[in-house]
Design brief:
single chain; 5 helices; 26% strand; elongated; CENP-P; coiled coil
Amino acid sequence: MDNSICQVYEDEIQSLEEEIKLLAEKYEDSQQESTFFSDEEILMSIKSFQREFQGQSKGHESPSDLKAQLESLETDLSFLMKFTGIQFTSHSKKTVEKTTNRTVRKHRLSGNCHSLSFQLEFQLLEMQNKESVSAVITDLSIIMESGEDSDVSKFVSSTEEHGNLLTFFRSLSSYAEWYEHRRRTFLHFK
């Protein structure tokens, strides 16, 4: 009787190991390919993950704690989108090169800032030392609907040269806000 119970447990362990292996391969494949997600798809995936996660968090945080954290993150994201006016509409990530201490990923972002749309494409070089990880942006390319504004074209060219995304997003937020005010003012006088 004991041998049959042990065999059942061993069979269950074997099937779980095979399932883990398949899931690990599926995860690795999903990390390698480029994917695009809309806001609705992301929210649907989060909710689907929450449903799957119910009851599986033994020894970890409770589902109610995770739900509270998720709601907090969604609130923070909503606040940041309202505060900056920047809303991302799609993102894709593809691993170009991966070694033990160096990873190169190609990112594509598109979105809107108030009424201006933008697209970014860049490579992120992550290098890992014994104590820390450093990341450098290379091959930055920015596409913006700036009309015939030469100042914006100069700014975009300068940003592409220096690869400074933080400066780009800060300046874009400010410029797009005033661009929208100016557009509304001119519409008012027409």
